[in-house]
Design a protein that fits this description.
The protein is α/β, with parallel strands linked by helices. It has helices at residues 17-37, 53-69, 84-95, 115-121, 133-141, 149-160, 180-189, 204-208, 254-258, 271-295, and strands at 13-14, 43-49, 72-78, 102-105, 169-173, 193-197, 213-216, 234-237, 241-242, 248-249, 263-264. Strand 2 (43-49), helix 2 and strand 3 (72-78) form a beta-alpha-beta unit.
Length: 296
């Protein structure tokens, strides 16, 4: 729960994303065992196009995470020269494969392939990222279990740390389809009053200073300074940037902001582990849904 004004020098509590992610993984592992008893092995297919090094690293992390909870992971590697139609054909095959419960197309894609038509070609019932327009639409009209992984992980962190949302003012900086927009919708569904800021918002700092809950997803290193933050706020930093001199930094000036916030996520170790944990959660959920459909 929010601790109130910390301006008297008490440092804000660090939200331990690694610990919460471990609890999520343990829950998923139990659900996977239940599916295996029914003869179902949850299976995630990842489509990786090209040789982007960060993408290859992310995919390896996802594979290891799947292995730890018993989810089968299959990586389909395609060359950088893959055409839009060739990728569509691969996705069509995965859509029709009953042994595959969840599909992820690793972004970014090569420049000759536009991501949005590719995402739309993925069947909503296998869209583990929750980015298909059908699944995104569900977020604006209800409280679906399948949600984009990063916002879903943030909501779990807020719940684990007893952060009240009903009637509170939440500010989200960023309006991407991956984080900002679904994040705002989930906070609104939790009865928060939500303000979304973006590059054309003229008074972002002023709006942030009114937030009980502040979620920052801009990709601008240390953009949010201490005087942007309301004393006692919960601050969630989604950004992660590698410094030229080495080390990782978020979108929030961590040390300075921690002196004002009641709760704050570190970078790394905050939101990042939750994103992969919720990918596992979503993959298991899609397998459970498929098992339910086949049983009827």
């Amino acid at each position: 729960m929010l601790a109130g004004d910390t301006s008297g020098g008490v440092m804000g509590e660090i939200i331990d994303g690694k610990a919460v992610a471990a609890r999520v993984r343990a829950e998923v592992a139990e659900r996977v065992l239940a599916l295996q008893r029914l003869g179902v092995t949850p299976t995630l297919a990842v489509v990786l196009v090209g040789d982007d090094v960060p993408s290859q690293i992310y995919v390896r992390h996802k594979q290891r995470a799947c292995d730890k909870v018993g989810i089968k992971s299959v990586v389909i590697r395609l060359p950088d020269s893959t055409t839009h139609q060739e990728l569509r054909s691969v996705i069509a095959d995965l859509n029709g494969d009953d042994a595959v419960h969840a599909v992820l197309v690793q972004l970014p894609l090569p420049p000759q392939i536009h991501p949005q038509p590719i995402i739309r070609s993925l069947g909503p019932v296998k869209d583990v990222d929750g980015f298909h327009s059908v699944n995104m639409g569900e977020i604006t009209t209800s409280r679906p279990e399948l949600q984009p992984c990063t916002p879903k992980g943030i909501m779990r962190l807020l719940k684990e740390y007893d952060v009240p949302l009903r009637g509170r003012h939440a500010v989200v900086i960023g309006r991407s389809r991956v984080v900002g927009r679904p994040m705002s919708s989930l906070l609104l569904a939790a009865d928060a009053t939500v303000t979304t800021c973006h590059r054309h918002t003229p008074n972002t700092a002023e709006l942030c200073s009114q937030a009980d809950v502040l979620v920052v997803a801009t990709g601008v290193p240390e953009m949010v300074k201490a005087d942007w933050v309301k004393p006692g706020a919960a601050v969630i930093d989604v950004g992660i940037t590698r410094r030229a001199e080495g080390g990782l930094v978020g979108d929030v000036d961590f040390e300075a902001v921690r002196e004002r916030a009641a709760l704050i996520t570190p970078v790394p170790g905050g939101v990042g582990p939750m994103t992969i944990a919720m990918l596992l959660d979503n993959a298991c959920l899609l397998a459970e849904r498929a098992a339910g459909r086949s049983a009827r």
